[in-house]
Amino acid sequence: MNFFKPFLLLALFSTPAFSQDETKLESEPVAATQQQSQAEEQAVTAVETVKAPTALQWLQRLTHSMRTLNFDTSFVVVRNNRAEPYRWLHGISNEQELELITLLNGPRKEAIRLGDTVSYFESDKSPYSVRSNSIRAPIPAALFGDIEKLQATYNFIGVGKSRILGRPAQLVRLESKDKQRFGYWLWLDIESGLLLKVAVISRAGELLEQIQFTHLMITEQSNDLLQQLTTAALPEPLSGNTMEVELPWQVNWLPAGFELIKSSKRNIQKVDAEVETLMFNDGLVDVSVYVLASDEAPRKATVNQTGATVLLSTLRDGYEITVVGKIPAQTANSIAESISFN
What is the rounded distance in angstroms from the CA atom of residue 155 to the CA atom of residue 2? Predict the structure, then answer.
């Protein structure tokens, strides 16, 4: 797919019609010159407009590149003056997508994707697999899918060019159409269309979190390590539809565009209690709501924020309510207050 193929606007370059009346031609040289100059300027402007991709076209190219290119890259997630380094491999083998994202520091945290199956490996959990065509990782899953859907809740703005990782980059902003979400700034490699940097920006313009790529290599063939994954013994995908779990409470308000993607119940052995969860997504951001029965006295909401991720907790009506997501604290509070119990 070539998003930069220029169109020939031959009609804009029409040849001026000269009169056969030489006397008239000589009497209006200035006007004719000005008209020709204006026509040429309009033609050049029109050509430049056609040649310059829109913000949507840049994002479409990003999605296409992340799905079709073989690449080996590293990035660092920076939040609250702490940095988490990752390695990210992607490749195509026998028309199947292969992907690996690994946290390089601390306890093991790794995700492997073979086609539409993702397997997760963490040091404090048993390995498991789910059916999905993207990995839940620092890179927003929406960038792998139907990017056009985000236009319902975000404005796409092409800003300009800069230099990231020693490579020419195009900056595209995703700005929320309401005050309920943060903004995302994406720097895309002009040569390949891949990500070079991501920043999460508050409504006040404050940098909350960023992903800075530190290495990028694009190859003709997929990495040998990815090829080995095709023969690895991976957990079988979990069965069952968690969407069918009915809970005795509901969220009555969410920002426009958020949809329910999962509901579940899980027993927490440490406290011998059952926590109930609803997860929502607007195409770019996940928001999880947890409800746990509690005999503690009611208390007002408390907020903890790590980078762009807000954790809001409150106690009322005999339940502890927790809202977690990359959303403003005011939005999380509105979600928590909207919950009603049957």
Answer: 24
